[in-house]
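Quick one: sequence plus nicotinamide-adenine-dinucleotide SMILES, need structure tokens.
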Amino acid sequence: MMQLPTRHIITGGAGFIGSHLTETLLERGDRVVVLDNLQHAQRDWLEQVRIHPRLEICQGDLLHPEELRGLLTASDLVWHLAANTNMVIGAQNPQVDVENGFLATQRLLEWMRSEGTHKLVFASSGAVYGDMARPPASEQYGPLLPVSMYGATKLAGEALLSAYHHVFGMQAWIFRFGNVLGARMSHGVVFDFIRKLRECPTALEILGDGTAEKNYILVEECIDGMLWALTHTKPGFEILNLGSPTTTTVNEIAQIVIEDLGLRNVELRYAGGARGWPGDQPRVYMDVSKLRQLGWMTRYTSSEAVRIATRRYLGKETGPTDRKESGKAERSVGTRGTNS
Ligand SMILES: NC(=O)c1ccc[n+]([C@@H]2O[C@H](COP(=O)([O-])OP(=O)(O)OC[C@H]3O[C@@H](n4cnc5c(N)ncnc54)[C@H](O)[C@@H]3O)[C@@H](O)[C@H]2O)c1
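Reply:
Sure thing.
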């Protein structure tokens, strides 16, 4: 079993999941280097911890690692979260995903190789499964045929990691996330519905036919699951689904958001079709028994996660890292086995 290193590099550390991970690792007492080009960060989520003595924030682009010399040490654990996460931009210009998804991953791996750094966590996605003919999909599912540029570049990143593991001894933990939710989310159906209903409280445009069914997980559970897996597996090459074993339909999400906004008689206008947009997956239903066998599973169902995240986004509830003061420990992480 691996003991967690105490120095971490987080690519994309200024983004939604990365900023929560940064706070969590600082709470553990570890050192964190955030590497982010800050192009897509919606707000300064690191504001609360910016002057933390164990945090270094480096504005830089993974496409130009030559400008980042001296940042990596051999014993670091690298969390690779940087990617283009805006599917609309990716669908309009595939180069954005190819560069920030695939090329950035390859440059990072080469940079790590040159510095002798060999431990990497990769934020992959259920998008690698494409249209699921036989859900729920386990990590053994195949063939893997993504239906989006985003999913294709995640799968290409996984393939690169596999090759770097076999050829250069890179140790990798690949997590295929479900849909991750929290107060800082900047995209996705919950975010989109809240935004639309604030603009027009009487009608909601729903992309697709409302029956799309996916799994949703809270950001702190996502981080907790990764930490659990890292400390309960041997370094090598691991692929793990990380999401909820339950799912929520788009129609259910619409009802939850409408209720929590306190609205009534909202007209639902469906754009129609099973797929909400080119590259959308109507079903993302993941088999999470591998992580469960390691002793970890989500505490909340998918629909509970949607409800909690909606409330947090609306400021009705606070999350574990939303309410804390900089640098103060509030909860332990990676220490829970709910189903072992
Ligand atoms: N949020 C989800 O539901 C979800 C689901 C599955 C997988 N993921 C993956 O998890 C990771 C984090 O997602 P998120 O929701 O926090 O996204 P995010 O967009 O909030 O964060 C990504 C960060 O990466 C940075 N970045 C992008 N390209 C870069 C580059 N070339 N060099 C340096 N920095 C760069 C951006 O500035 C941004 O701050 C991503 O890899 C995403 O694909 C997220």
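The chain is about 35% helix and 20% strand. Residues 7-313 form a domain with the Rossmann fold fold (CATH 3.40.50.720).
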